[in-house]
């Protein structure tokens, strides 16, 4: 890959020397900064490209999406120049798992270059009971407390009303994206012929209070080649317990690069 194509949802142009691009999609209420340390943790041939959705961090002035179908359509259009240039994979965490899978499905449906693999973390298969609550189920204080309970918010911010006034509308709009998954164009889990022709590897945190590993296992109904890993940690295991997670992820990335598996601590069986 030699292009230096820049697109609005990436903070920089892709590396021209990369052998594989790894597009990373963040969780509800999060941002691209969730992946800020990943470039130093993956094989050197992999270019980590966090995708920044509008309405937060560096794109905070832009209107946010509330509909999964509209979001995926915009991402497919915005990222097309990068996705067509060479091999790519995607990691999606929590809400990002839904977004990454919908993007891959849209690309394959439209005849574009699909991913070499999808990596999905901390999210139940969409045809099951939703991983995340409905956008208007909780009042602001209840929603903030829920975010603290599963590790998505530092408790000190419960007393920062000014900060919560910024964060909670972002969270609610992202929850609306999750609630609209039926419009994301995902494969029908009841139709074996619709399953994605690629590797999907799903990760579940052993101590995740939101997501039961069995509901993550149910992603197997969306693909022809499914793998599952249980890793130490809660809902945000890549941040709280990175060692075992990256050991497993890097073995899979090395496989895509045609390289020997890197040495490292084994992940929990899964």
From TrEMBL:
Q: Where is the Thioesterase domain?
A: 21-240
GO BP, sorted A to Z: lipid biosynthetic process
InterPro entries, sorted? AB_hydrolase_fold (IPR029058), TEII (IPR012223), Thioesterase (IPR001031)
Q: Which Pfam family, any one, appears in the UniProt record?
A: Thioesterase
Q: Give the matching PANTHER family.
A: S-ACYL FATTY ACID SYNTHASE THIOESTERASE, MEDIUM CHAIN (PTHR11487:SF0), THIOESTERASE (PTHR11487)
**What family name appears in the similarity comment?**
Belongs to the thioesterase family.
Name-wise, this protein is Thioesterase
Q: What is the lineage of its organism?
A: Bacteria, Bacillati, Actinomycetota, Actinomycetes, Kitasatosporales
């Amino acid at each position: 890959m030699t292009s230096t194509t820049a697109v609005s949802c990436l903070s920089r142009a892709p590396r021209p020397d990369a052998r594989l691009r790894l597009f990373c999609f963040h969780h509800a209420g999060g941002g691209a900064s969730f992946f800020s340390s990943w470039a130093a943790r993956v094989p050197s041939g992999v270019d980590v490209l966090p995708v920044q959705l509008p309405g937060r961090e560096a794109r905070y002035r832009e209107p946010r999406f509330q509909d999964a179908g509209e979001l995926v359509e915009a991402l497919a259009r915005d990222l097309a120049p990068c996705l067509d240039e060479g091999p790519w994979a995607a990691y999606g965490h929590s809400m990002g798992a839904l977004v990454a899978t919908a993007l891959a499905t849209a690309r394959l449906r439209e005849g574009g270059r699909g991913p070499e693999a999808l990596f999905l973390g901390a999210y139940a298969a969409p045809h099951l009971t939703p991983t995340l609550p409905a956008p208007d189920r909780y009042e602001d204080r209840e929603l903030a407390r829920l975010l603290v309970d599963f590790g998505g918010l530092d408790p000190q911010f419960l007393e920062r009303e000014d900060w919560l006034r910024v964060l909670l509308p972002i969270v609610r709009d992202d929850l609306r994206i999750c609630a609209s998954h039926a419009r994301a164009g995902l494969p029908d889990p009841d139709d074996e012929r619709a399953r994605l022709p690629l590797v999907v590897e799903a990760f579940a945190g052993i101590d995740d209070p939101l997501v039961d590993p069995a509901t993550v296992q149910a992603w197997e109904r969306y693909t022809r080649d499914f793998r599952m890993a249980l890793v130490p940690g809660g809902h945000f295991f890549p941040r709280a317990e990175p060692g075992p997670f990256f050991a497993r992820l890097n073995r899979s990335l090395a496989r895509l690069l045609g390289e020997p598996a890197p040495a490292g601590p084994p992940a929990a069986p899964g």
